[in-house]
Amino acid sequence: MNKSSKSLAGASILAAITASICCITPVLALLASITGIASVFSWLEPFRPYIIGITAIILGVAWYKALKPKDYAECACEDEKAGKKKTFINTKAFLSIITLLAVLLMAFPYYSKIFFAEQKSKEVVIVDKKDIEKVKFNIEGMTCQGCEAHINSELSKLTGVIDYKTSSKEGTSIVSFDKFKTNVDTITKAINATGYKVSNYSIIKG
After folding, report:
1. Which residue in 50, 70, 79, 139 has a CA-CA distance of 20 to 30 Å to 125?
2. Into how many domains does the chain fold?
3. How many Å apart are CA 153 and CA 156, to the nearest integer?
4. Are residues 8 and 86 in the same domain?
5. Exposed, middle or buried: residue 1 (CB in 10 Å: 0-12, 13-18, 19+)?
6. CA–CA distance, 115 with 193 (Å, rounded to integer)
């Protein structure tokens, strides 16, 4: 594995991180207790397919360079350096690790939700169905399942919230709650605190 291959390996990791940074950021924000920065990189989401494509190309070129048959000049050069110890970073095993890491980073949006705890065991006592209100919140900044899990995690902590269904694809969260225990403003503040922003909401009748 020559210098150009190592440079390509590094570039592939950088591209893979960029491809999934919009979903990595909420997890880092959660760990750092700075949830407000969660949607900072959401603008990158439309470019994600292109960045993944670039990553695949970079890795492909790196593997081609690492596996292609060496010509006589390259072999002679390696013979001259035979006395030097081959470092791990120059091996195909290292490139394999880089490839695996890149794949895990690019797939991060699909398993990032495991980092967000959801309080599903909370008991809610309902006296009358008339006490339940269902509201659809339109939310800006969501890009993946990790974003959904982040919002759901915060909604599950609110007293009075009975049910919620958040969709990054639709950019919405439909929340059912006991209107005598919480309200739209409280729910809006909880969502906004994650870094995603409620643009508007509408009450669902029936």
Report:
1. 139
2. 2
3. 5
4. yes
5. buried
6. 17
> Which is nearest to 42 in space by CA: 202, 200, 171, 201?
171
CB 131 within 8 A of CB 178: yes
120 and 147 co-located in one domain: yes
Do 102 and 17 fall into the same domain? yes
C-alpha 72/C-alpha 119 separation (Å) is: 64
Boundary (domain end) residue, out of 113, 145, 164? 113
On whether both 109 and 124 belong to a single domain, the answer is no
Q: What is the pLDDT of residues 117-173, one digit of tens each?
A: 665 545 555 557 889 999 999 999 888 888 888 899 899 999 999 999 999 999 999
Query: Which domain does 94 fall in, by range?
Result: 3-113
Q: Which of 63, 91, 113 is the last residue of a domain?
A: 113
Paired sense of beta strands 161-167 and 197-204, if any: unpaired
> What pLDDT, on the 0 to 100 scale, is given for residue 110?
72
Q: Which residues contact 66 (CB under 8 A, 6 or more apart)?
A: 1, 5, 92, 95
In a shared domain, residues 60 and 39: yes
Whether 107 and 12 map to the same domain: the answer is yes
Q: What is the mean pLDDT of the chain?
A: 77
Distance CA 22, CA 173 (A): 19
Q: What is the pLDDT of residue 38?
A: 56
CA distance 96 to 70: 20
